[in-house]
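User: Before I run my own analysis I want an independent prediction to cross-check against. Here's the chain; please return only the structure tokens and, at the end, one sentence I can use as a sanity check.
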Amino acid sequence: MIQDIYPDHFYNQYRPEAVPAADSPVVLIRGGDILLKIDEEGKLDYPRVKELAGLAAARPEALTYLFAVNEEEFFLADLYHDLPEEWTAPEAFSWQPLNAVRRKTLFPQRYVMALFTIIHLVSWYRANHYCGKCGGELTNDVKERARACPACGNKIYPRINPAVIIGVTNGDCLLLTKYRTGYGYNALVAGFTEIGETLEETVAREVMEEAGIRVKNIRYYKSQPWGVADDILTGFYCDVDGDDTLHMDTGELRYEAWVPREEIILQPQDYSLTNEMMRMFKERKEPR
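Assistant: Structure tokens:
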């Protein structure tokens, strides 16, 4: 999955005192694009502080610490600084649409994991420029990863949406779906947890809503951060309970079927919890 970068290590501790070095990777955003270097083989790299000399948005005082991957500390350039029209990106770097680049198969994996987390954090920073209580301008908290309002003391933390991925089994068949719009490959039943609901209740409700069937033997598998949607995904397997006649939610799905293990077609990328759960079932390794 996207976070499986061992022996590399992702450090998410917030370090506001961190000082960027000349070789520190810098996240530079312009509208919906990010400045990256991607070669013909899919090798991904980020611009460094030393490559952005003279750019006001990349001066040390304008950089916000994000996280570290191994010894490399990533910084976010000032999102609210307008890039000068005449500024030219460093050689071999180009502006890449965030929504498109996340769908590419890139390497090294540690930089792809960084990219997914960058998308999550950029979304949060962009959505929290002003205080929702008093309208004052927010600043970065000096102790923790939060946006703080100097006027009223309100604090806003990164938004993390809990969601479930559900592998519904029926003997040697797995319930596969395809979304009506957007992602075109095989998927599993999935959905967000509602207020006042346990994760297990979310599983039962989402299966009923998307497939019209009841489930039993709900068992936890694994979790995954999914920064491109601000999610924390929680994977569960469960068994159909009684009638297995499917009643597809046509508003959300365009395909839904019980598929035998040997006929399951996996997604082209091995990034997602969904794909791993399909593969585990296909290989008879799912928890029972």
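Sanity check: The chain has a mean pLDDT of 94.
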